C-alpha cells in the first residue's frame, strides 16, 4: 500500500502510473493536511496482511541486505515483541541515525545518534538485535492485529513522537 499525500512532482506521478499495472500494489490518495499518524492509520485500515510495515518514502536499503524484511517479520512474529525497527544510517555515510529509542532527561531520543557505525558501542548495541523501549516509525514493523487493537498511531501527534507513544502503549500492555 502506497499513500499518495499531496506530492507535487511529475516524476512521482509517472512512477505511480508505472506501478498501476501491478495488482500487488495499492495506491491510496490522502487529500487532507499532512498528519503522519492519520496517513498511516488510513493505510492500515486498508491492509489485509498479518504484519504492517510503516516505511518512509526516503528509505533506501543498503546493498547486501536483501533479506531485511524477512528478518523483521521473524522478529515481529515473536510473542514478546511489540514492534521491530531497523538500524538507520544517515545517507551516504556510516553515521548512525537510529538504533532504537531511549528515554533521556530531555525526552525520547535516538540511541547512538551520529556515532560511527564501523565501531561497536555498549556491547554491540548497534551490531546485534536488542530489546528497546521504542523504535522510529520511519521503518517500523508489527503485527496488524496489535496495531489495530491499540488504535494505531495517536493522531493528536501529527509529526513527531507518535511512534514513541505507540511503543510506550505497547509496553504498557
The major pleated sheet works out as: 3 strands, antiparallel
Proportion of helical residues: 25-40%
Task: Give the overall silhouette.
Answer: globular
How many distinct helices? 5
Structure classification: alpha+beta
Strand content: 15-25%
Low-pLDDT residue spans:
none
Q: Could you state the order of secondary-structure elements as H and E? A: EHEHEHEEEEEEHH
What does this structure look like?
By secondary structure, the protein is of the alpha+beta class. Helix content is 27%, strand content 18%. The protein contains five helices and nine strands; from the N terminus they run E-H-E-H-E-H-E-E-E-E-E-E-H-H. It has helices at residues 10-19, 36-46, 68-76, 144-149, 162-172; strands at residues 2-4, 27-29, 51-55, 84-85, 88-89, 96-98, 101-104, 107-110, 139-143. It has a three-stranded antiparallel β-sheet. It has a two-stranded parallel sheet with strand order 1-2. The protein is globular.
Amino acid at each position: 500500500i502506497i499513500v499518495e499525500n499531496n506530492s507535487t512532482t511529475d516524476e512521482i506521478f509517472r512512477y505511480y502510473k508505472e506501478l498501476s499495472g501491478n495488482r500487488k500494489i495499492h495506491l491510496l490518495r490522502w487529500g487532507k493536511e499532512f498528519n503522519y499518524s492519520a496517513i498511516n492509520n488510513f493505510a492500515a485500515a486498508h491492509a489485509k496482511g498479518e504484519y504492517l510495515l510503516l516505511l518512509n518514502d526516503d528509505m533506501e536499503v543498503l546493498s547486501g541486505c536483501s533479506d531485511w524484511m524477512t528478518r523483521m517479520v521473524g522478529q515481529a512474529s515473536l510473542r514478546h515483541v511489540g514492534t521491530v525497527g531497523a538500524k538507520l544510517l544517515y545517507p551516504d555515510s556510516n553515521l548512525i541515525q537510529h538504533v532504537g529509542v531511549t528515554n533521556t532527561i530531555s525526552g525520547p531520543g535516538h540511541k547512538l545518534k551520529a556515532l560511527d557505525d564501523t565501531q561497536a558501542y555498549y556491547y554491540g548495541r548497534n551490531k546485534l538485535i536488542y530489546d528497546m523501549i521504542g523504535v522510529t516509525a520511519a521503518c517500523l514493523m508489527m503485527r496488524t492485529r496489535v496495531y489495530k487493537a491499540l488504535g494505531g498511531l495517536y493522531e493528536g501527534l501529527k509529526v513527531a513522537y507518535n511512534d514513541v507513544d505507540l511503543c510506550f502503549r505497547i509496553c504498557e500492555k
